[in-house]
Design goal:
Elements lengths: L19 H4 L4 H26 L4 H9 L5 H28 L3 H19 L11 H7 L1
Helix pairs in contact: 3-4
Length: 140
């Protein structure tokens, strides 16, 4: 199947979003709604990029460093399953929370809880070989 123009193959073709010419605001109320929508998209992009750069990787990094050799494969398997489960739960709840603007407070509270948990309950693993992790946990 030949297509003359690749621009036609987009999300607007699938009717998932309106085309740009149909989404231009016409009244003052539409302009305010459009500006609010643009602001929400920008804030979400900033949040996602900040999270991916900071806390997003730690869900994979910390479990790979703290498990001993004997428990590493099982621990990483459980970590992946729990990570996928909560990613699904968050994706399902995010839009409903966003409509009430509760998502900002909810995720900010969880970042605080995660920070306190890491500070108080996880041992320092810098320059510790994996073979010594059992002794690190015994001392901790």
């Amino acid at each position: 199947m030949k297509t003359k123009n690749c621009k036609n193959l987009s999300l607007s073709t699938l009717r998932l979003r309106p085309t740009l010419e149909n989404s231009r605001p016409r009244s003052r109320r539409d302009k305010e709604a459009f500006n609010s929508a643009v602001l929400v998209v920008i804030v979400i992009c900033i949040y996602v990029s900040s999270f991916a750069w900071s806390w997003g990787t730690l869900g994979w990094l910390i479990p790979s460093e703290i498990f001993t050799l004997e428990t590493r494969s099982v621990g990483q398997g459980i970590n992946v399953a729990v990570n996928f489960l909560f990613t699904f739960v968050i994706a399902q709840a995010f839009l409903a929370m966003l409509c009430h603007m509760m998502s900002v407070l909810f995720f900010a509270a969880w970042v605080l809880v995660m920070s306190l948990f890491v500070y108080f309950f996880l041992p320092e693993t810098k320059s510790v070989p994996i073979e010594k992790m059992t002794s690190v946990w015994r001392r901790h």
